[in-house]
Amino acid sequence: MKPSLADLPVGQHAAIESIDCDRSLSRRLMEMGLLPGTRVRVVRVAPLGDPIELRLRNYSLSVRRAEAARIAVSPEAAE
């Protein structure tokens, strides 16, 4: 089982593998730049754990933990 974006610690880099959710949510996430193969980094997590701030394609994006849990990733070594 692949780890999800919600499982990554702060500072961790990963490549998106797949998005497993309903079509409308999947489309919205992809429109925001979360496409398979995209490299992302977890920047910070809110104090109560939701939302998660990501850095990708030279901009920051915040997603809910429930959405992040539906995105399978391939972790990379932190830089």
Keywords:
5-stranded antiparallel β-sheet; 5 strands; 79 residues; SH3 type barrels
Model description:
The chain is of the alpha+beta class and 79 residues long. It has one domain (5-76): SH3 type barrels. Helix content is 16%, strand content 38%. The protein has helices at 23-31, 65-68, and strands at residues 13-19, 39-45, 52-56, 59-63, 71-76. It has a 5-stranded antiparallel sheet with strand order 4-3-2-1-5. A hairpin with a 2-residue loop joins strand 3 and strand 4 (59-63). The longest helix has 9 residues, at 23-31. The radius of gyration is 11 Å and the shape is globular. The N and C termini lie far apart (25 Å). The model has no long low-confidence stretch (mean pLDDT 91).
Topology summary:
Blueprint (H helix, E strand, L loop, with lengths): L12 E7 L3 H9 L7 E7 L6 E5 L2 E5 L1 H4 L2 E6 L3
Order of helices and strands: EHEEEHE
N-C termini distance: 25 Å
- Based on CA atoms alone, the radius of gyration comes out at 11 Å
The CATH superfamily appears as Ferrous iron transport protein A (FeoA)
Strand order of the largest sheet: 4-3-2-1-5
CATH class: Mainly Beta
Regions with pLDDT < 50 over 5+ consecutive residues?
none
Largest sheet at a glance? 5 strands, antiparallel
